[in-house]
Amino acid sequence: MNIPSKIQLFITLSIVTLTTIGCIPSDTNSHHAYITNQGANTVSVIDTTSNQVIKTISVGKAPVGVAVSDKLKRVYISNVESQDISVIDVSTHKVINTIKIKGSPVGLTVSPDSKTLYVADWFENRILAINTTDTNKIREQLVGDAPAGLVISPDNQWLYIANRDSNDIAVIDTATLTIQKRIAVGKHPFGLALSKTGELLVSVNVQEDTITLINTKTKQQHTIGVGYHPYCAVFSDDQKRLYVTNTQDDSISIIDVTTQKEIAQVDVGSTPEGISIDQENHHAYVANWGSNDVSVIDTQTNKLVTTIKTGDKSRAFGQFIIKR
Fold it and tell me: What are the structural domain ranges in the chain?
């Protein structure tokens, strides 16, 4: 299948799975959320102190994934249709580089030392490791079918990749970029989450309406039912809860990590996808693909605080909050 038709398939698969400005002054210590708007080819920048959009940035075509580097003060955006990655300078909110990819980048993550940007190439079934200092230096490795979510261990040793159509997670040695093992999970894993210690890995299984909790040391697994067509997950700032987006329930499932049970659901906008947490403000930000907005949840009360209008088909797949 050629690239244009594959790109159309990606957009179609997303829909099937889901069915699969001017600036204002802001505190220099505030956090900003970078929300990809796939239908508008833009990124909305939200000041998480004021909960207002302070900038809209034009990027490549059909932006999906986001990764941030506090150290570099950079935000990376995967543009699936234009087959490139936009690099945004946090201080100016401007695109300062475009990295061309001969494929269709979706999931992104930055290594803990900020030296490497990892990219999941959805249609070429590979991951790329891009040197953040010299973006012409790129390593690559074939993984499973339709790689999506990426997370990396705190010690920078292991990269975990959700292979949607292989129904597993590939474990990559970052030094050699080779596959060390595969972990079978539920059907169609998409989003991943990893605890701060790196001991608990979470796979979000879209077509099973479950998440799989994996102990990375003992390899033990536990499966928990959530809402309809879950997509992404994130740990709370105290690591005691998990927040999971349910695209077809228009809700967030909240999981108690200790008891491994769902303790609440919170209604949000239409077709929630990406989710990140501003730890200092104790707020979870949820990008709603169907209602073109972002829901803000107080993680101390688990109540909806406000809704912020963004752009067409907001996705924000990945870690999208950074300190300015």
Answer: 35-323
Please state, for a pLDDT cut of 90, what percent of the chain lies above it: 88
203's tokens: 């796979």
Q: Tens digits of per-residue pLDDT, 125-134?
A: 999 999 999 9
Q: Are 110 and 321 in contact (CB under 8 A)?
A: no
CATH class of the domain at 35-323: mainly beta
pLDDT per residue as tens digits for the range 107-123: 999 999 999 999 999 99
Cα distances (angstroms) measured from residue 256 to each of 213, 224, 268, 275: 12, 11, 19, 17
User: 114, exposed or middle or buried, with CB in 10 Å at 0-12, 13-18, 19+?
Assistant: middle
- Whole-angstrom CA distances from 34 to 18, 216, 317 are 22, 30, 10
Per-residue burial over 253-291, b = 16 or more CB atoms within 10 Å of its CB, e = otherwise: bbbebeeeebeebbebbebbbbbbbbeebebbbbbbbbb
